[in-house]
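Running this now, will post back.
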Amino acid sequence: HTGFLEDVAALLEATLDLHRAGAGDRFLEAAVALAEDLVARFFDADENDLFLTPCDGERLVHRPRSEPDGATPNAAGAAALALVRVAALAGRSDWEQLVERVLRSNAIVLERAPVAFPTLARAAALLERGLAVAVVVGAPDAAETRALADRARRLLAPEDAVVVVAPDAAPPAALDPS
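Update: finished.
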């Protein structure tokens, strides 16, 4: 099964959260791969929007878009929020530009009913302020390094990132060094 936008967006957010929590750089690499898949399959460049169904999925009479936030987050908003996060870490300005296009496509609903789309509004706010990244340099298994990384996780916003790098190690492959 190919899944829907909300499935891929939730998995992308989960991999970013696991990386932030210190579960390993493999989750950042997985996030980049998921973001590439999400953009390729759910973004329509002609409509400048993210759709619920993938372009390679079952052909429908009408390709649906995200509903407002309710019991579950707006799928386009969750995807946009995750794309802003992974774009900042991977140095992918093209993904940030894609999010800008999605936000412009949804500007009318955000303006007229912002309380119905808080996830999309959060994506707009994060794109505007930028992602904060705490880089902790130290032996990953050292108590001091873990304590500093844990402190950064408590102080930063939930969407922000914490990266732990050993002193003589190269940064994670999926992380943009600039």
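The radius of gyration is 17 Å. More later if anyone needs it.
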